[in-house]
Write the structure tokens for this entry.
Amino acid sequence: MTEFFQHMINMLILGSTYALLGIGLTLIFGIMRVVNFAHGELYAFGAYFVYFIAVLLGFNFFLSLLVSIVAGCVLGALIEVVLLRPMRGADIDTTMLIMIGAMIVMQNTEQYVWGGVAKSVSTPFPETPLVMGPFSVSWLRLFVFFAALALIAAAYFLINRTKLGMAMRATFQDRDTASLMGVNIQAIYMATFAIGSSLAAAAGALLGPVYVISPQMGNIASLKAFAIVILGGLGSIGGATIGGFILAFAEEMGAGYVSSGYRDAMGFLLIIAVLLFKPTGLFARSERIG
Amino acid sequence: MRRLLPWIALLALASVPLWLKDPYLLNAFVTTGIFIVAAMSLNLLLGYTGQLSLGHVAFFGIGAYTSALVSLGFDVELVGGFRVIHDPWPVWLGFVMAILVSGLCGYLVGKLSFRVRGAYFVIVTISFAEVVRLVALNWVELTQGPLALTSIPPMALGLPGLGHFEFFSKQSNFYLVLGVVALSYVIIGRLVNSRIGRAMVALKENESLAVSVGIDVTRYLVLAAVVSAGIAGAAGSLYAHYLKIIDPDVFLFLYTVTMVIMVITGGKGTLAGPIVGGLIFGFIPVIARSFAAPEIQWILYGLFMILIVFVLPQGIVPAIEKWFGPGEEPGVGGAADATMQDAQ
């Protein structure tokens, strides 16, 4: 039983970062209809940026988190303007291929710049874990959990309570009508991609120091983000949040009770099962955002 | 003239081992040829039915592992102490089994995944490929996992009365692969220029219209998936017996991307497209290798991919056909009305 609760604690921490990753991707797909294969590379970018600022330049760890989230936002806006804006109106397969090309370029740039050896980031948190009775959890993981929750709450606030969020939701529902109502669609697309990218970078910046940072970390992150988004229903932020926790639960159970080698297979099996039995996702009443 | 073109191309390619003695380049031709076969099989799905499968490498890898395991033999214990022992079979039977097993997987995956379309379909196919890769990595007793299956015998053909031939040298493998390319070309060509192919194009152009005139969409999609998976399995088998070693990396997503970009570059929905695109993307690494580090090669590869989609979204072959005016080759887009009537 103790083991089970330890898995549950891990699930909550992992799930909160997965939710961040999923919300970013679901926003981009829901509003822009772009299947963003580069999402995982922005996750890796966030992690490498923390390594760059905190370890190589020696700045404060918390400052480096903030900077990497902003950097993710800028890079996302840049990708949108350079690669996606000229191809507006192209079909979904075309933009998907462009994003696959971007993924290959980004991943190999990381490999070239940082080398294939995994990097680790040391944090200001104490090494000794927080012990509560039979359970223990490291301070860093606890921080990651609460930081991720704060970011999820910020994303909710942005989408549901701000003018930008309202414009994004309007664009999602009907692009042409939103445009007629004076919404600047080009700006909304750029903002969407930038916000989605910064959420992915935030997930990487938070999880990178927990594990190690390697050029291949983006591969599996993209696929996991797809799993989360499909679980929750494309375009549903609430669904992506819950989907993140479900994926983390499935992985913890799979790794704990089946075989650790099949940890990453759990997400894919979930995707296949969901698409076969409930293709609209578990939580989508209808396709909507917010 | 247009009818002669494939024959001229075949003859030109067949002459390659006569004047090309550099083993590295010949090797590049053989591996490129194997990927061309895989790309041609993908083109059947992507180009003619319009379904972008990003898990195609699964069938390639299943073919490679099936063929290798059938010809090497294996001894595994399944759940419940049930033991399966398989003695090595002749290599050509491995090739046949690879096609059958991959085709069967294509049937199952097709039956299940054609319930969804677009982005969902893409993600189901990737998921399938990843699950198969993880099984190959973790089922060590059968696949040796990351240690790889080694000493796979070369492809061999034994016909009663005609003796036994082993495809060991690069030259013989070149002709073997060229033969399979030509055969796949003929099979896919016959298929897409038949009633079945026109039905496939009809459902690509307008699925709801195709359904409304009575085309059983799922049936044709599954049929395309079976043929496509079978041919991909054949390519995987050639790959295993040519390299003589395979590990779970044959399931890498990048191989699927390579096949997709070969098809897109050459021109999806054209018979010659995957061959033209395949030759280009097969030899980019060979040229880039001389001046760039591996990462730079991949970066160039990615940039080239983006460039192709930006500049030539329809691919090279359709661009050339447009340049020389309308040709005889039917079945590519357009003429939807005639297609619909015919398919009824």
Notes: The first strand of chain B starts at residue 74 and ends at 77. Chain B has one domain: 5-343.
